């Protein structure tokens, strides 16, 4: 290149060198995010020009003039990212690209005291250098708003950079990456592939507010033929721009949400319910959450990862942020977007901040309320939900030493002997006769089997309702609850049922006398298997039943015995 020898190569400052090394080798775990970073910078540059037009009456912002274009050239191994943003002066090139960890965008926000309405993403001043993860050489050609001169910045990484004047017609910036050659272990070709670039843009930058254009290959029928195709190039806008979560709820239909659910691959089913949240308080955030209808195929495996997608200003930060969901709501799918998050430098993980905790708590309550509403107003839907995920709620009651029982107890349902369908604890308690002391339940493998249990006869005859527990977790959860609306739970196989007729079981000495020998004999035969053999008044049609004295029921014992120590 002419005159290059005369140019003095400037060195990055020493600390910058070390930092650059860090950016290239350690900060990011995922190489593909370089595109997210460069597109975010382009979007920031357009935001800035937009801001200028608002504050300078000599300028107009014509929406169609502002876009980002991604242009791969496989033959030359060049990937170009162009924008029509504010550009950089020579000084700004020096400042922003010559000093690592210096963010012109951060300074811009400060200087103009921009708080709301703008989505400027930049803040750390390192994203740009992520380009060196995929490129041997990075060239920036830029012309600043209001300047007649254009400049070129070029660098091959740690050995420094040059800046020289160059030609550029319009205001804006081109970032030109010379993509690395493949090595034995690493493939860089993919960053020149149309479909791969499109995928990366969709994944991270789908909701950038300005159009991201690409020339894409299309196929059409050749003129005059019926099955011969020819390829042609067409410019396409790759990103969807306006995130659905920033739209007004009233403008969105059920289908819009369902499409979003399937586009995002949250599940193959249709969601049972969506929750659209916009909070504009101390921590601002938008969220769209879904309650799926069906259990994800891997839900009860170790592979299942709970979590919500997390966006910061429309840019994807994390695929599955697990801190946003408690375990008992792990079935919830969806996303959260907030402009108030404290990100760490790679923007891959965020610090465990107050803001995040606030959002998580908020979300938890919204989900609970939504489920409560569903239970109240859309009972059929709720029962479908409960069939899929009720177990999860019961685990929620049981885990953390019952810390969440208040939150979850009203959402529980069990099959009722009386109603022959699922009922809530509230419904049970509300129709309890006054003299009934306890909430009765019976444990068994299926409802049919429970129906045949001798132990339920007396309670049933008394006219009391019995809840059927057919899942392992049921009795454990209820033990954690202990009471519901001050009513204790009582297993029908417990020795003290709190019902008059059997109150005196233990004292039925007179009757016992006559059968003493039989009972002694039975006890001997059964040995350790039983503690005592007694006469019972709870039986109606059955000759015998098991009952237990202690806290742990026979069924719980069975489960505990199957657990690994
Ligand atoms: P950050 O975006 O966090 O500020 P970067 O390393 O990504 O950090 O970018 C550093 C700075 O370089 C930006 O703050 C901005 O001032 C400037 N810059 C980068 N890319 C562009 C661009 N396409 N147009 C204008 N300025 C840019
Ligand atoms: Mg940036």
UniProtKB/TrEMBL annotation:
<dbReference type="InterPro" id="IPR020575">
    <property type="entry name" value="Hsp90_N"/>
</dbReference>
<comment type="similarity">
    <text>Belongs to the heat shock protein 90 family.</text>
</comment>
<feature type="binding site">
    <location>
        <position position="83"/>
    </location>
    <ligand>
        <name>ATP</name>
    </ligand>
</feature>
<keyword id="KW-0143">Chaperone</keyword>
<feature type="binding site">
    <location>
        <position position="88"/>
    </location>
    <ligand>
        <name>ATP</name>
    </ligand>
</feature>
<dbReference type="Pfam" id="PF13589">
    <property type="entry name" value="HATPase_c_3"/>
</dbReference>
<dbReference type="InterPro" id="IPR001404">
    <property type="entry name" value="Hsp90_fam"/>
</dbReference>
<dbReference type="GO" id="GO:0140662">
    <property type="term" value="F:ATP-dependent protein folding chaperone"/>
</dbReference>
<dbReference type="GO" id="GO:0051082">
    <property type="term" value="F:unfolded protein binding"/>
</dbReference>
<keyword id="KW-0963">Cytoplasm</keyword>
<protein>
    <recommendedName>
        <fullName>Chaperone protein HtpG</fullName>
    </recommendedName>
</protein>
<feature type="binding site">
    <location>
        <position position="347"/>
    </location>
    <ligand>
        <name>ATP</name>
    </ligand>
</feature>
<dbReference type="InterPro" id="IPR019805">
    <property type="entry name" value="Heat_shock_protein_90_CS"/>
</dbReference>
<dbReference type="InterPro" id="IPR036890">
    <property type="entry name" value="HATPase_C_sf"/>
</dbReference>
<feature type="region of interest" description="A; substrate-binding">
    <location>
        <begin position="1"/>
        <end position="347"/>
    </location>
</feature>
<feature type="binding site">
    <location>
        <position position="37"/>
    </location>
    <ligand>
        <name>ATP</name>
    </ligand>
</feature>
<dbReference type="InterPro" id="IPR037196">
    <property type="entry name" value="HSP90_C"/>
</dbReference>
<feature type="binding site">
    <location>
        <begin position="123"/>
        <end position="128"/>
    </location>
    <ligand>
        <name>ATP</name>
    </ligand>
</feature>
<comment type="function">
    <text>Molecular chaperone. Has ATPase activity.</text>
</comment>
<comment type="subunit">
    <text>Homodimer.</text>
</comment>
<dbReference type="InterPro" id="IPR020568">
    <property type="entry name" value="Ribosomal_Su5_D2-typ_SF"/>
</dbReference>
<dbReference type="GO" id="GO:0005737">
    <property type="term" value="C:cytoplasm"/>
</dbReference>
<feature type="binding site">
    <location>
        <position position="41"/>
    </location>
    <ligand>
        <name>ATP</name>
    </ligand>
</feature>
<feature type="binding site">
    <location>
        <begin position="103"/>
        <end position="104"/>
    </location>
    <ligand>
        <name>ATP</name>
    </ligand>
</feature>
<keyword id="KW-0547">Nucleotide-binding</keyword>
<dbReference type="GO" id="GO:0016887">
    <property type="term" value="F:ATP hydrolysis activity"/>
</dbReference>
<dbReference type="GO" id="GO:0005524">
    <property type="term" value="F:ATP binding"/>
</dbReference>
<dbReference type="Pfam" id="PF00183">
    <property type="entry name" value="HSP90"/>
</dbReference>
<feature type="binding site">
    <location>
        <position position="173"/>
    </location>
    <ligand>
        <name>ATP</name>
    </ligand>
</feature>
<keyword id="KW-0346">Stress response</keyword>
<keyword id="KW-0067">ATP-binding</keyword>
<feature type="binding site">
    <location>
        <position position="96"/>
    </location>
    <ligand>
        <name>ATP</name>
    </ligand>
</feature>
<feature type="binding site">
    <location>
        <position position="102"/>
    </location>
    <ligand>
        <name>ATP</name>
    </ligand>
</feature>
């Amino acid at each position: 290149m002419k005159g290059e020898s005369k140019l003095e190569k400037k060195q990055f400052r020493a600390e910058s060198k070390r930092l650059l090394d860090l950016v290239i080798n350690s900060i990011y775990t995922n190489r593909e995010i370089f595109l997210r970073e460069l597109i975010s910078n382009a979007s920031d540059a357009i935001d800035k020009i937009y801001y200028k037009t608002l504050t300078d009456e000599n300028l107009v912002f014509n929406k169609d003039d502002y876009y980002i274009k991604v242009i791969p050239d496989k033959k030359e191994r060049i990937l170009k990212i162009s924008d029509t943003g504010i550009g950089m002066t020579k000084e700004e090139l020096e400042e922003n690209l010559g000093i690592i960890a210096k963010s012109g965008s951060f300074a811009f926000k400060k200087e103009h005291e921009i708080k709301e309405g703008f989505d400027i993403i930049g803040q750390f001043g390192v994203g740009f250098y992520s380009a060196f993860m995929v490129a041997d050489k990075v060239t920036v050609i830029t012309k600043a708003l209001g300047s007649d001169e254009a400049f070129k910045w070029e660098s091959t990484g740690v050995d420094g950079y040059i800046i020289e004047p160059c030609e550029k017609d319009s205001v804006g910036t081109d970032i030109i990456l010379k993509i690395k050659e493949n090595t034995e272990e690493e493939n860089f070709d993919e960053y020149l592939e149309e479909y791969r670039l499109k995928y990366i843009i969709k994944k991270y930058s789908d909701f950038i507010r300005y159009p991201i254009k690409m020339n894409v290959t299309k196929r059409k029928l050749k003129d005059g033929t019926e099955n011969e195709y020819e390829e042609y190039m067409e410019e396409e806008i790759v990103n969807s721009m306006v995130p659905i979560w920033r739209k007004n709820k009233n403008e969105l239909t059920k289908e819009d949400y369902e499409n979003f659910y399937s586009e995002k691959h949250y599940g193959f089913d249709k969601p049972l319910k969506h929750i659209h949240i916009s909070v504009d308080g101390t921590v601002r955030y938008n969220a769209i959450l879904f309650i799926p209808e069906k259990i994800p195929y891997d839900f009860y495996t170790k592979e299942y990862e709970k979590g919500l997608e997390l966006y910061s200003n429309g840019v994807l930060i994390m695929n599955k942020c697990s801190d946003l969901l408690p375990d008992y709501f792990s079935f919830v799918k969806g996303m959260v977007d907030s402009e108030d998050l404290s990100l760490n430098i790679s923007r891959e993980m965020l610090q465990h901040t107050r803001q995040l905790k606030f959002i998580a708590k908020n979300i938890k309550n919204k989900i609970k309320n939504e489920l409560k509403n569903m239970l109240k107003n859309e009972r059929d839907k709720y029962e479908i939900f409960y069939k899929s995920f009720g177990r999860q709620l019961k685990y929620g009651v049981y885990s953390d030493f019952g810390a969440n029982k208040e939150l979850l107890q009203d959402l529980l349902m069990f099959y009722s002997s009386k109603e022959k369908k699922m009922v809530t604890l509230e419904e049970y308690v509300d129709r309890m006769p006054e003299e009934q002391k306890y909430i009765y339940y019976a444990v068994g493998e299926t409802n049919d089997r429970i129906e045949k249990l001798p132990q339920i006869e007396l309670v049933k005859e008394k006219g009391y309702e019995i809840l059927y527990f057919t899942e392992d977790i049921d009795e454990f959860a209820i033990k954690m609850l202990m009471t519901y609306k001050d009513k204790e739970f009582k297993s029908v196989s417990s020795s003290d049922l709190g019902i008059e007729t059997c109150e005196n079981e233990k004292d039925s000495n007179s009757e016992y006398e006559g059968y003493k020998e039989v009972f002694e004999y039975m006890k001997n035969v059964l040995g350790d298997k039983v503690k005592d053999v007694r006469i019972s008044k709870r039986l109606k049609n059955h000759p015998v039943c098991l009952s237990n004295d202690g806290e742990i029921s026979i069924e719980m014992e069975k489960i505990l015995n199957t657990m690994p120590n």
